[in-house]
Design brief:
single chain; mainly alpha; 5 helices; 54% helix
């Protein structure tokens, strides 16, 4: 079976990519819908999450600054953000390539035997 999808909207591409990655991770590394929203916000805004940007995100997910900090901490623990609260290097590389104009994600799934 071969499934292909070409996205023209960055946010939809990021959302699908994050959900695909998330589905393939062990339960302790998977993110919640709110954490997904935080990641998508970071990917699409491409600005430091300080001041006004942080307030905009808090308003979007309807949380306090303290709650947002807790979301960041969980994203770090789960490996989606680095120790500095920035996008993990592979996700950051995806963002960089998407902003250059093209990026392709390939996934292989198999059952039984060797790959």
């Amino acid at each position: 079976m071969k499934i292909e999808k070409n996205f023209t909207n960055k946010e939809l591409f990021y959302q699908s990519s994050i959900r695909l990655l998330n589905s393939m991770l062990p339960a302790e590394k998977q993110i919640t819908p709110t954490e997904e929203t935080v990641l998508l916000f970071m990917l699409t805004k491409m600005k430091p999450l300080e001041g006004g940007m942080r307030k905009e995100l808090c308003d979007k997910i309807k949380c306090s600054s303290q709650s947002l900090s807790a979301h960041f901490k969980r994203l770090k623990v789960k490996g989606w953000l680095d120790d500095n609260g920035l996008l993990e290097k592979h996700i950051d590389a995806m963002q960089t390539e998407v902003n250059k104009g093209t990026y392709e994600v390939k996934v292989s799934l198999w059952y039984g035997g060797n790959s």
